[in-house]
Amino acid sequence: MSDAPDLRPRPAPKNPIGKSQAAPLEPWRDPNAKPYVQIEKVVKRFGDFTAVDNVSLSIYRGEFFSLLGGSGSGKTTLLRMLAGFETPTEGRIFIDGVDMAGIPPYDRPVNMMFQSYALFPHMTVENNVAFGLRQDGVPKDEIRARVAEMLEMVKLTPFAKRKPHQLSGGQRQRVALARSLVKKPKLLLLDEPLGALDKRLREQTQFELVNIQEKLGVTFVVVTHDQEEAMTMSSRIAVMDHGHIAQVGTPTEIYEYPNSRFTAEFIGSVNMFEGHVVESEADHSLIRSAEAGCDLYVTHAAHLPEGSRCWVAIRPEKVSITKDKPAELVEGRNVTRGVVREIAYLGDVSIYQIDLPSGKRVRATAPNVTRRTELPITWDDEVWLCWRPFAGVVLTD
Amino acid sequence: MAAHLPVRPPSLKQRALAVTRRLGLTGRGGVILGPYAWLVLFFLVPFLIVLKISVAEPAVGIPPFTKLIEWVDGGLDLKIRFSGFQALFEDDLYILAYLNSLKIAFVSTLCCLLIGYPMAYAIATAPEKRRGPLLMLIILPFWTSFLIRVYAWMSILKDEGLLNNLLLSLGIIHEPLKILYTDWAVYIGITYSYLPFMILPLYATLEKLDHTLLEAAADLGARPWKAFLTITLPLSLPGIIAGSLLVFIPAVGEFVIPSLLGGSDTLMIGRELWNLFFNSRDWPSASAVAIALLAFLVGPIMIFQHFQGRDQDKGAA
């Protein structure tokens, strides 16, 4: 353990939902911390198809870790290897320091919540939840008590005697959760846990999941394709693409400091300007972009030789849109002009689509601070777009 | 006022529709009518004829039984005799034959289940490409005449048949086993003949079984054997019941297999029925045996299916 306080900037709390936990915050920053799950150079091939390609990951105790990716990104295969349903073609997986090679699913200290929930249709809710405990030969009284406690936690006590087909989707989801948690696993794997729920129920359940995870101190590894879900719940996210890990980091890191065009475009929306490096210094970089119609001044080192091709990613909410020429700026730097083509009024914010002279379409979001703007920006208005030097991120691929 | 519009006379099609509607015949009714007509014509009517014969008395002549209603001395004479049914209870041959038929059918059904379940399971869990050919192999024997297959078993099971020769040459036995013309041969014959009827419904339920349920069971700590007992077996119960009924019901009344493979002491109700009809020419008694057999089987099966139907309603998603 390092006693020196970490003075690195930490722009947002680790968990936006406001998680307060006893476990050390951000154990992945501690070089001495021992990972609970260690995935070492794991490859999984199905015939000619490589589903998971040389993935290494460390997941720490008490984390809410998300594997985020589109379909076919290998996230579910990775999860199934942790559960023991698939065997890695190459590489090793350690859980709590034990090599999982050759250990069948029923002997692993891991439980899984299935995407389809996989509730046993011929058993009542109660028996579904009790199933895992019965396999371990837990005494009957204890089974009864623990099942009751679990059903209480997921608020399903009145439904104990029902069969799965007599429940709603949300109730089934909670039975599946209770069943996977009743054995008090150290590690819970969740495959698209909220995928089958409608939007409102999903948002509500996100909070419940985080609360339960916090209460029980279980390590969660969640597979999801929903970036908003991953951002809301996770301590860290691994963005996966075609079997690789594109980036691992906290939601803030992933959003604010994407390391590739893939991550930047996968998480949220982004404006991507192609250009080439004009100045490359330790404290700033200057990128000339014909697409943007101006030079892009970025206050971080690009570590790129001058003249090399690169992209600058700027999030829409960091682009400010004005009808008048903005003051306090260097001419031709981080400022450009365009014509408003589309406006989407979402209530809290408005999304503007602006066409630049280069033909590039830029997206800018602005909060609707006042009820009726004095000089509302409307279709076909010519506007100024500008952004702060810290807004952009230089990317190479 | 509006002028009178010329009313077009209804077309032929419209008139035809009106007629059928007046008869209470809709499209759906029309579709169901076919099977109903078939059942009435080829099941209900013959059944009623058999019922009628069962309450007649044997007589010398053609047909060899008395008439139900006769014109005697200027009046209608309704003659119902229960002598056929009486014989069932007076002669314990029939009771024994019934019981033995039930026993043979039960044991054969059990054998079919024990052999058929693993086969159905293996086919259902085989790679999808291979399932078709495997099912084909199960159905293939039907393409050969049933009688020929039973005769083939005779040549396999007889004293100097294939099986005995094989066992003798391997030195497992030193004198031929007496299998043909015993109950053993009947068990083998029925199990062999009815096995596909067990496998097909079992396959249908096992194939639909959600594999993630077994993964979930394993994940919760169930070893494969335990997962089979607690998940696969209960969920395949509808297939087990359907398959067992398909084997058990025809096996009880089986005639060909016991008469070809069974010994003279193999009592089965199907054989007794045959004897009554063709050897004793006692049609009323034979009909009574048939009616009693039907009553024996229909009662329990209806109760069984009632409960099964209720269970399935509960289990349906």
From TrEMBL, chain A:
GO biological process: putrescine transport
GO CC terms in record: ATP-binding cassette (ABC) transporter complex
E.C. code: 7.6.2.11
Region called Disordered, residue ranges: 1-29
Keyword Heme set for record: no
GO molecular function term, any single one: ATP hydrolysis activity
Main EC class the enzyme belongs to: translocase
Domain ABC transporter: 37-267
Keywords noted in UniProt: ATP-binding, Cell inner membrane, Cell membrane, Membrane, Nucleotide-binding, Translocase, Transport
Reaction equation(s) it catalyzes: ATP + H2O + polyamine-[polyamine-binding protein]Side 1 = ADP + phosphate + polyamineSide 2 + [polyamine-binding protein]Side 1
Function comment: Part of the ABC transporter complex PotABCD involved in spermidine/putrescine import. Responsible for energy coupling to the transport system.
Family listed: Belongs to the ABC transporter superfamily. Spermidine/putrescine importer (TC 3.A.1.11.1) family.
Oligomer status and interactors: The complex is composed of two ATP-binding proteins (PotA), two transmembrane proteins (PotB and PotC) and a solute-binding protein (PotD).
Listed name of the protein: Spermidine/putrescine import ATP-binding protein PotA
From TrEMBL, chain B:
Gene3D superfamilies: MetI-like
UniProt keyword Cell membrane, yes or no: yes
InterPro entries in UniProt: MetI-like, MetI-like_sf
Organism in which the protein naturally occurs: Nitrospirillum iridis
Name of the protein this chain belongs to: Putrescine transport system permease protein
Highest taxon above the source species: Bacteria
GO CC terms, sorted: plasma membrane
Family: Belongs to the binding-protein-dependent transport system permease family. CysTW subfamily.
Lineage, uppermost ranks: Bacteria, Pseudomonadati, Pseudomonadota, Alphaproteobacteria, Rhodospirillales
Compartments reported by the entry: Cell membrane
Lipid bilayer topology: Multi-pass membrane protein
All residue ranges annotated as the ABC transmembrane type-1 domain in the record: 98-304
Keyword presence, Transmembrane helix: yes
Keywords assigned by UniProt, alphabetized: Cell membrane, Membrane, Transmembrane, Transmembrane helix, Transport
Major location category of this protein: membrane
